[in-house]
Amino acid sequence: MSKPAAHGSIRRRLLLSLLAGAAVLAFVVYFVVQTVARQVAQESQDNVLAASAQSILDGARLSGGEVNVDLPYSALSMLDSISDERVFYAIHLEHEFLSGYADLPAPEGDPSGAPAFLSAEFLGEDVRIASVRRRVSTGAGRSYLKVSVAQTLSGQKLVLSRISRISITIGAGFFLISVFMAGIISGSAIRPLDRLTASVSRRGPKDLRPVAAPVPTEMVPLVASLNSFMRRLQQSLLRSEDFIAEAAHRVRTPLAIVRTKAEVIQRVSDDPETRKALKEMIHAIDDSSRTAGQLLDHAMVTFRLDHLVLEEINLLHLVHDTVERLRPTSELKDITMQAFGEQDSVIKGDPILVQNALHNLLDNAVKYSPAGSQIDVVLALNQNEAEVCVKDTGPGFPADELDSLPKRFVRGKNAEAVVGSGLGLTIAKEVITAHGGTLKISNNPGGGACVSLLFPLP
Amino acid sequence: MRFLLIEDNKQLAEAVVDRLILDGHVVDHAPDIQTAHDFTATTSYELILLDVMLPDGDGRTFLAQHRKQEESTPVIVLTARSQVADRVGLLDLGADDYMVKPIDFSELEARCRAVLRRRGGVAQNLLPLGDLRFDSLSGTLKFPDHDVQLRTRELRLFEVFANAPGQVFSKSILVDRLFSYDDDVTENAIEVYVGRLRRHLKNSTVKITTIRGLGYKLEPE
User: Which of these, A207, A286, A358, A371, has the minimum number of CB atoms within 10 Å of its CB?
Assistant: First the structure.
């Protein structure tokens, strides 16, 4: 049986989509945590910077049109307390630089007095600058006083990288948990399918009962069509079997009537001519019934081979059974039949078919052996095969036909030669081939034919 | 021997009964399982011939019931179906043997003999002839001081003579009785087997004599 082509895997697809979702979510988590933390850190620094600038601005006094600025200690110490940052400041009146670092870049302060912020580079370091301003009246008229405070960002960077590490850990942890969950989810989603597969594949080839176990809603249509398919298959199998049996019955019963009546008349008739005619008639009936029988057997063998059920077969028992079955027939010709074989050997196969194959070989041997001769059935075990050899003391096979004989049994080729005695060998050959073995035809050194069935040992 | 034939086809049954009577057997015919049970309840048979397909059931049903009632009468199943298909279960159900129709009666006779021999329990069917007794079941000539085991063809030939002592059988009739329809044998082959029987009967009062131009006959004394 050919394996259906696989296209994708539901489990893998499910797993991949769950993982992709989890990865996106993990990244979002990482990004959100990172952004929020950065904002919080920035805001708190901004607040401190603004407060510091505001307290300097609050400390500025105007006296006689002059601006006096005291740097309150607290204004810069609150910045120091955060970490070992460097702190810069600058005080401007309008655009006139008053004190601090003249080059310190400063955002335009908001006229309403709200603090303004700027990130910039100063003296080779990243800094955050806060500016506040307020209107003042000087001698020169109304103007505004602007205070800028800056702080380096190295400490904040440290904090941020720690936060970043934490958010990576959170994101990764989230992802790992999702992987675990995805594994469990895809497993449990696929389980009913696995169960169905197991329950169907455990069956023998002849078990065509419908699947009765409950399945998830989504699988109901599949199981329903599977069940209806099996029902149809079973019906058609039964029909084939019935047909073969019925055909056999229809053919053989009339033949049996004619043959028996002919035999009765032949027995009671005193006329040699009548007896001779009847004898020829019976001979013809036997011929046709044997052919019909073999054709029907062949149909049945083909049918069983299509649905091969393998069982363990004790080959020695089977050989003895078959020999005993044919012994009365062989005794009619005073043929002695013997079965040899000491070792028990077990092969895998359909016992009825194997027996039928051997029966055909023995039947041929009895048919072609002269009265009073001997037929030996020998079971021998080689390294990896069991050989059942039927040896007779008949005329044997013509030497020039030994090579061509097996070729004649190729099905379909010269069917004319197959009908008749060839079919018995054809059946044997088909059975043994289906069991992975071979049919061997040879002549005994001492005369007579030798036909062997070679079975592979399990 | 007393046979019970269970067969629903009337023509076939009649022919089989006629044929078995020719061999000196007594045959009752049952067309269905019910009648068969009625027969086996009142009469004891040496052998039952059972068709597989019957109007009131499968032959297997009869076989199963027959075995359940611990009836020991041997059963030979006659099947018209595929040999491959019908083997299933027949022997398991307790059939002693089976034959595929059309029946070759020499083969049936051989199979009956084999079954009865295997069962071993049949009352000895010894036919006294002159100074010997003939056991047709085992194929033995029992002399006062020794036994001679006949081979099948010798046995069947001797049976023909022993069942009708004094009757003359022509060679052609003997060929018909002795050889299957398949065998292509000349009448001279009969001389071989008559010769063998004469050797077995060398010191006996039983003689097979040649009637020139007519054939052979058996003389007990």
Answer: A207
Within this chain, do residues B78 and B21 fall inside the same structural domain, yes or no?
yes
Instruction: Please report, for the domain that includes residue B59, its CATH number.
Output: 3.40.50.2300
- Determine the 3-state secondary structure of A152 from DSSP: strand
Map A77-105 to HEC letters. Answer: HHHHCCCCCCEEEEEEECCEEEEECCCCC
Query: Which pLDDT tens digit goes with each residue over A306-358?
Result: 878 888 999 999 999 899 989 988 988 889 999 998 777 889 999 888 998 99
Q: Are residues B87 and B42 located together in one domain of the fold?
A: yes
| Per-residue model confidence as pLDDT tens digits over A331-345 | 888 899 999 987 778
Residue in B with minimal Cα distance to A251: B80
The answer, for B16 touching chain A at a CB cutoff of 8 Å, is yes
- How far is residue A223 CA from its own chain's centroid? 19
How high is the pLDDT of residue B183?
66
- Tell me if chain A has a CB within 8 Å of the CB of B100: yes
Residue B182: band (very low, low, confident or very high) from pLDDT cuts 50, 70, 90: low
The span from the CA of B183 to the CA of A335, in Å, is 14
Q: What is the ipTM of this complex?
A: 0.85
Q: What is the mean pLDDT of residues B67-81?
A: 84
Distance CA B114, CA B177 (A): 19
- Residues making up chain A, counted from first to last: 458
- Average pLDDT value for residue range A451-458: 90
Cis peptide preceding B102, ω within 30 of 0:
yes
CB atoms B15 and A268 under 8 Å: no
Domain containing B138 equals: 126-219
Q: Which of B119, B137, B172 is where one domain is finished?
A: B119
* Contact at CB, B114 and A245, closer than 8 angstroms: no
Domain segments of chain A: what residues? 13-162, 204-307, 309-458
Residues of B in contact with A261 (CB under 8 A): 15, 18
> Domain A309-458 adopts which CATH fold?
Heat Shock Protein 90 (3.30.565)
Q: What is the pTM of this model?
A: 0.66
